[in-house]
Specification:
alpha/beta, 3 domains, six-stranded mixed beta sheet, 15% strand
């Protein structure tokens, strides 16, 4: 067996395209990376699941996946043997040239042509997909095995699931051959550059910039950004890439920005509030918002799943599907606060049962108060599409919604500890810094991404019974705190006016 120890791979190539420092740190200072979040891990697992399912589009292939990802040698040699033997389809075919490795998701003979197919869990072709494919094409070309056609196989976001999955409809094959041929001319030059960087003794100096989050959030941000104070110009609301210009001009801290004329009114308010440590109030705006609320008051929050592979008949890839909600409600000003909740048992499609219960629990009058209500409204519209027989009752809920984010997004109430954000996760600890009953930190599930990931695990029945029971309790506690938080925020606004 030959020496197949590789210096670069597809993922390393994409890292190099994004940032040479990221590539270097990945190879030599991996311990400086932040651990992936539960949401990031779920996305990676979802990509694996999509890749495995995509193989059914070209059934009967030979699997070349290596037994160990530390030793691709057998996979590389098997790939060449299978190609020589005339196999029609290979999964995870490995190609190696000049210390560079690329594993292709699907290698396929279609008549007289050879097709190279990369599977992506997105619903469209991204720029970095082309870079990824260009590296693979270049390696295959160096081996005199360039494919006739190159495809990105991605999810079709217009596909509506029937009773069973239709793999041919679920996936779309997009021919990127000509784009890849154009890009592959830069691959050799890039690889030489990356190898030279990795041969250096010192970490390359690359200033922070928009590339830190494009196309991926870099796992070394905490390391590379440790010189940035908190708060900084990057925390200003709606600052965008203009923050980097201020940074390059040496205007980083709020003290640096206190005389900056280019800031918007809200950004100036944010800086002023922090430097003076003062809450900024516009009581008339708060009073006007509260005056639009009508009893009974329903404080409402959805939790959803958005699986890449649609689980239920009539759903699409990545469709937001409501599977849980929490509801605190007050019948009148003097009434006792009550709580209702729903969490599907997932014995079947959860949407019909949830929709029926939702109509019952939200009544026919009164304000439905949500935080960033467009999300809840979007889920209800989706429920109406999947439950046409009760669609009128569901759609009748929409005009009753009022958005509790408004007093904060419009800066009627701004606390310096909100750090420019109007999200409930920023507002709640700013308004109630010492109330442990209103802290997400004490919960096992503390943010929406984790909740959605766990809900999907429950929906797909991938948890053992004991874990599933505990996860359900954790999910109920998280969603309940979301709506209790809204009640407390509403009460605080009333105190102000």
């Amino acid at each position: 067996m030959g020496n197949y120890r590789h210096k670069l791979s597809k993922s390393a190539y994409i890292s190099g395209k994004q940032c040479l420092k990221r590539l270097y740190l990945q190879k030599k200072y991996r311990h400086l990376a932040s651990a992936p979040t539960a949401t990031q891990e779920a996305i990676m697992q979802q990509g694996t699941t999509v890749g495995e399912l995509a193989q059914a589009y070209f059934p009967g292939g030979v699997d070349c996946t290596p037994e160990s990802y530390y030793d691709f040698g057998p996979s590389i040699e098997q790939t060449q043997v299978f190609i020589s033997d005339g196999k029609q389809t290979l999964y995870e075919a490995s190609f190696f040239h000049d210390q560079v490795l690329a594993a292709l998701d699907i290698w396929h003979r279609e008549g007289e042509e050879v097709w190279a197919i990369e599977v992506k869990s997105s619903t469209s072709v991204k720029e970095y997909h082309l870079d990824d494919a260009a590296l693979q094409y270049w390696i295959m070309e160096q081996l005199e095995q360039a494919p006739n056609r190159f495809f990105i196989m991605h999810l079709n976001n217009q596909y509506v699931r029937g009773k069973a999955l239709d793999i041919k409809q679920l996936f779309t094959l997009t021919d990127i051959t000509e784009l890849v041929k154009e890009k592959r001319t830069e691959v050799g030059k890039n690889l030489q550059s990356y190898k030279a960087v990795l041969a250096q003794a010192e970490i390359p100096e690359v200033p922070i910039g928009p590339h830190c989050g494009d196309p991926f959030a870099c796992e070394f941000i905490n390391h590379c950004w440790q010189h940035i104070p908190s708060p900084s110009v990057f925390d200003l609301s709606r600052i965008g890439t203009k923050a980097y210009r201020f940074y390059e001009e040496g205007k980083v801290s709020y003290e640096d920005l206190k005389e900056e004329s280019e800031l918007s009114g809200n950004q100036k308010l944010q800086v002023r509030s922090y430097l003076k440590n003062e809450v900024q109030l516009k009581p008339e705006g708060i009073k006007q918002f509260l005056g639009k609320l009508e009893y009974p008051l329903y404080f409402f929050d959805f939790e959803t799943i958005n699986p890449a592979i649609p689980l239920y008949e009539g759903s699409k890839p990545y469709e937001q599907i409501g599977v849980q909600y929490s509801l605190h409600w007050l019948e009148n000003e003097k009434a006792e606060l009550k709580h209702l909740e729903f969490l599907s048992e997932f014995q079947s499609d959860p949407r019909p049962e949830l929709a029926e219960q939702l109509i019952k629990d939200l009544g026919s009058s009164g304000s439905i108060i949500a935080y960033n209500m467009s999300f809840e409204q979007r889920v209800i519209k989706s429920l109406a599409e999947s439950n046409p027989e009760i669609a009128p009752q569901l759609l009748a809920l929409l005009p009753r919604f009022k958005d509790l984010i408004i007093p904060f997004s419009k800066k009627y109430y701004y606390h310096p500890k909100m750090h420019g954000s109007a999200s409930i996760k920023a507002v709640l600890p700013a308004l109630f810094p010492h109330d442990s009953d209103l802290s997400y930190d004490s919960l096992t599930v503390s943010e929406g991404g984790t909740a959605s990931t766990l809900l999907q695990a429950v929906a797909e029945n991938t948890l053992d019974p004991k874990t599933k029971a505990q996860v359900r309790q954790d999910l109920l506690a998280y969603c309940k705190l979301d709506t209790l938080a809204m009640v407390k925020i509403w009460e605080k606004l009333r105190e102000v006016v």
